[in-house]
Amino acid sequence: MNTFIATFLGLGSVALAAVPGFDISHYQSSVNFAAAYSDGARFVIIKATEGTTYTDPSFSSHYTGATNAGLIRGGYHFAHPGSSSGAAQANYFLAHGGGWSGDGITLPGMLDLEGDCAGLSTSAMVSWIKDFSDTYHSKTGRYPLLYTNPSWWSSCTGGSSAFVNTNPLVLARYSSSAGIPPGGWPYYTIWQFNDSYKYGGDSDTFNGDYTSLKKLATG
Q: In whole angstroms, what is the distance from residue 86 CA to residue 11 CA?
């Protein structure tokens, strides 16, 4: 079982704190990282790539800005499961900003799963995600975060529980509460709860205290 997930499961019913964060892409051309940090944010997830041909033009400047502000940061990859294999896209992501290092300020990469099902059956989609995840793990020693919403996960994977013990869940649900996580995950690791963060991008919250967030970064 993934060490970070096992640690969380070991907390049982203990109430966890929450750490604010956000996620961004080139659509947020100007982000006040220092103000976000001053206002309590401690992490940001930054778009790096899509498929095997696209790199986000703002990734480098966003990553540098986040680092300089003292934020824990990581990259994310927007999946195109119908265009190439999971392994090919994981390797592209890793080559263009999606890597991980145990420096305490780098989150494992995140795989963004949304939109349509790309014409794949539920079993084929699960296999595609596993191909991406296993490739990322083989190169970094970490499993990627999986970003999804309950509707997509149900429609495109059939509600698969194949990743519960390996991949932290980033739950997209714009509501006053996170609700029940899809796919058998006992909890979300990060919850994206709206698409309007005052310093740019979407609003996120980490399900734990800052020490646990650092644990996610360090492995």
A: 33
